[in-house]
Write a structure and sequence with these properties.
The protein is an all-alpha fold. It has 2 domains: 28-78, Orthogonal Bundle (Arc Repressor Mutant, subunit A); 88-228, Tetracycline Repressor, domain 2 (Orthogonal Bundle). Helix content is 65%, strand content 0%. It is built from 11 helices and no strands. Helix 5 (110-127) runs antiparallel to helix 11. The longest helix is centred in the middle third of the chain and has 25 residues, at 80-104. The protein is globular. One of its GO terms (molecular function) is transcription cis-regulatory region binding. InterPro entries: DNA-bd_HTH_TetR-type_CS, Homeodomain-like_sf, HTH-type_TetR-like_transc_reg, HTH_TetR, Tet_transcr_reg_TetR-rel_C_sf.
């Protein structure tokens, strides 16, 4: 009697798709489809990165956050470096683009540009509360894993664009000539991201639990408005 044919090998899964069901013999089986599971893993990575830092986060930590096996995280992203690149490309940069688009429509109106930035930052932080903590931890802190991303990818999208717009307004007499357009952008970041990232501290320090983002936004705009006025009051 001839030997029975060996069973056909299952086709290997394409990149970004889960392995065949028969290969998942251990751990939890995800019930979401491929796109939802991938997004779930990226969200879990963001939560871990913002909470404990990129360097201190392992694939096992991300798997625990997403309630899947570490092997599944490895299957989708290969290693931590590739997962970090995916987080930047698919989560961080699209958020920055959301901020840039309304700013591009402000024209040469400095007040509209400033207000658009203040409102925009508040809006994206409301939708993506991980952003301020991640920015402080991974951009401002020495050795932060996202500093190069800020300098080479985020920087041209918003900070450099706004500084150039401020410089143009200044050349046309629409901005206080004593201001440095670059430092004005630095001030805007300091007056938006810092208060949002440190809100638990200053609310506790001043007993200011009632101060919400709308109050913070109004305060910031009034503060900036006084500094943006020309000497002749125009």
């Amino acid at each position: 009697m001839s030997n029975p044919r060996p069973p056909k090998k299952a086709k290997s899964a394409r990149a970004g798709q889960p392995a065949a069901e028969s290969r998942r013999t251990r751990g939890r089986r995800p019930t979401a489809d491929v796109a939802d599971l991938r997004a779930q893993l990226l969200d879990a990575a963001l939560a871990c990165f913002a909470r404990q830092g990129i360097a201190a986060t392992s694939l096992r930590d991300i798997a625990a956050e997403a309630k899947v096996t570490p092997a599944l995280v490895h299957y989708y992203f290969g290693d931590k470096a590739q997962l970090q690149q995916a987080v930047v490309a698919e989560k961080l940069l699209p958020v920055i683009v959301q901020l840039r688009e309304p700013l591009a429509q402000a024209g040469d109106d400095v007040a509209a540009l400033v207000a658009g930035f203040v409102h925009g930052v508040g809006g994206i932080v409301a939708r993506h509360p991980w952003l301020p903590a991640l920015w402080v931890r991974e951009v401002l802190c020495e050795g932060g894993a996202l500093r190069d991303v800020l300098l080479h990818q985020v920087g041209p999208l918003v900070p450099k664009m706004m500084a150039a717009r401020f410089a143009e307004a200044q050349r046309h007499g629409k901005l206080n000539p004593d201001l440095d357009p670059r430092l004005l952008m630095v001030s805007l970041v300091g007056l938006t991201f810092f208060p949002l990232a440190s809100a638990p501290i200053w609310r506790a320090l001043f007993g200011a639990q009632e101060v919400d983002f709308d109050a913070l936004r109004r305060h910031t705009l009034v503060l900036l408005d006084r500094g943006l006025e020309l000497e002749n009051g125009q």
